[in-house]
Amino acid sequence: CIIKLLGKFIIFNKTNRVWGNALKKRFFSLQYKLLFFSLVIILIPILTLGIFSYNESLDIVKQKVSISNLNTVRQVGERVEAIFQDAHDLSLFLIRNDDVRKFFMLENADGVTEAKARIIQLNNELMYLLSTKPYIYSIYFKGFNGISTDTRNSSNPIDPDIEEELIRLKGGYIWDIGNIINYGGMETKVFSLMRVYNDMNYIPNRLAIMKINIDEQEISQIYSSEITGENDEYFIINNDNNIISSIDKGKVGTKLNSQIVGNIPKHNKEGYFQEVVNGNDYLITYYYIDNMDYTIVNTVPLKELLKDNSVIQIAMLEVAGLSFIV
Q1: Distance separating alpha carbons of residues 155 and 139, to the nearest angstrom
Q2: Residue 195 CA to chain centroid, in angstroms?
Q3: Going by C-beta distance under 8 Å and a sequence separation of 6 or more, which residues neighbour residue 175?
Q4: Which of 10, 13, 108, 153 is found 20 to 30 A from 220 (Cα to Cα)?
């Protein structure tokens, strides 16, 4: 009997252990399920709100960065415009200058004392004018009386077709970009304002072709100081979409990417848009230069402009992590 009782007791204990283990497993399983559902209930709203907040903040940051960049490009454009306008105003001043008029009314008189005295006087006056305009590289006159002068004694080749166009314009002006040849054969790339110099006392009387040269390097220095990143670039393009000014001189003379050019409106003074170029998102900002067929274009990868926005992303992850711990 005792042995039978002991056997039943052992079987009862084993049965209780089996049921106890099963209950424990079920209890732990329930705990894990509750923990899992709690995490889901907590994380889904946080992540949803975080993603929404991040996207909203990203759009706001993009807009603010785009407007800020537009203001910078506008300031660059206005400074470049001021230089070109100053060269134009200088050309009008010289047209009214009596010393210039008298000099180019001389006959071809190389070696004549009067001609030498007047050319010295003219050069001194021109150099004085340029002393306050460091961006103007030189002033060149090609007289119809056979006398020519340049403030740097540089060679200023002018295309015959351009000369014919200048004569046809009867005092109107043309902007062009090209090279002038300095002493020793070194070349300097310049923006040139060219116009026919007429006698103010008798307009039909053509006296000379006037050419005011602006150093391209002086122009590129204006926007080079505004470059903020490794891939931030500025260009000046003409109406044929050729790059005529850039920090990277190897790109001068090439065409700007057609994806960019094709989205620049022709009738807006300034603006910006986003464009995918070579697989990367770029912010494109443009500014038309008044009274010229030139446009300033700035291209910068969006990821460079939005570096600060990554802080928001990290903060959201920290909030999610803290919520998980709590």
Answers
A1: 11
A2: 30
A3: 84, 191, 192, 193, 194, 292, 293, 294
A4: 153
